[in-house]
Specification:
By secondary structure, this protein is α+β, with helices and mostly antiparallel strands. The protein has 10 helices and 12 strands. A hairpin with a 3-residue loop joins strand 6 (about 130) and strand 7 (about 135-140). Helix 8 (about 205-215) runs antiparallel to helix 9 and helix 9 packs antiparallel against helix 10. About 45% of the residues are buried. Bound molecules: flavin-adenine dinucleotide.
Amino acid sequence: MFTVGQLVQPDTVEEAYRILTEKKDAAVLGGCAFLRMGSRAIGTAIDLSHLNLEGITEHADSFEIGAMTTFRMLETDSVLNTFFDGLLAEAVKPIIGVQFRHAVTVGATVFSKYGFSDLITALQALDTEVELAHGGRMALEAFLNRPYEKDVLTRLWIRKDGRRAAYQSFRNSASDFPILTTAVSLLAGQGRIVVGARPLKAAIAVQASQELGRMDLNSQRMDEIAALAAGEMTFGANMRGSAEYRRELCKVLVKRAVTEVAACK
Ligand SMILES: Cc1cc2nc3c(=O)[nH]c(=O)nc-3n(C[C@H](O)[C@H](O)[C@H](O)COP(=O)(O)OP(=O)(O)OC[C@H]3O[C@@H](n4cnc5c(N)ncnc54)[C@H](O)[C@@H]3O)c2cc1C
């Protein structure tokens, strides 16, 4: 279990960032589920709950999602889930259980860039931007590829572009970490196929995505696209599965997700 010297509740994002960077042993608190797994000694714990960063707001062309929004909020938001074929709800639903999803937060998850993350895989299939207290606003892809730097993730922005999307993941058993995650989206000839938990962090299968956007889809074409995705991605091994197993799984999950997206067309 982690320990905390003092708890602060800043009234502005600027103050939260200042404390984080000025105090060497400071850390931001999300839902604390992951922090609880370790034994970190946090000198100053920064609680963001006075910053109005909890919740999902619909704008004319985007959704704004505060860093303190929980997975359960994503899962149950009736407006958000009328978009993208309920992709975000589908991605978080298999994670542990309802009580757990009431605690864990979007900001902590995306900032931590977990390789196994169901949510990051799904967000990458959408037009998602990350907003940071210091780093400003940038595409999720750019954020994921940046080296680590102390900052506070404040919001996500997802463009409401009407894309179709589907999510697939595979676990050894319910409530375990995923062995592989995939998200597929399609909008006006632009396809995106994302593969995560490889166990490396989620990435876009670039060639397969291009083929998905270009082609009239039938069963044979879907098999070819799935094989292309499995061929171009790098996979690794961990206690949950070998690289070879993940590559075979990738073909199956990508085909299933592409089939769902094609059926939505
Ligand atoms: C037992 C267990 C099983 C899990 N299984 C899965 C799974 O199957 N699939 C899956 O996708 N995920 C899984 N997760 C991860 C989970 O979904 C969350 O991503 C994770 O717990 C982090 O969220 P949190 O709110 O608990 O973060 P916390 O534990 O509060 O924080 C995690 C880290 O993020 C930092 N942080 C928090 N908020 C911010 C912020 N706004 N800006 C910058 N830094 C911040 C903290 O300082 C800390 O370093 C699992 C986690 C646990 C503990």
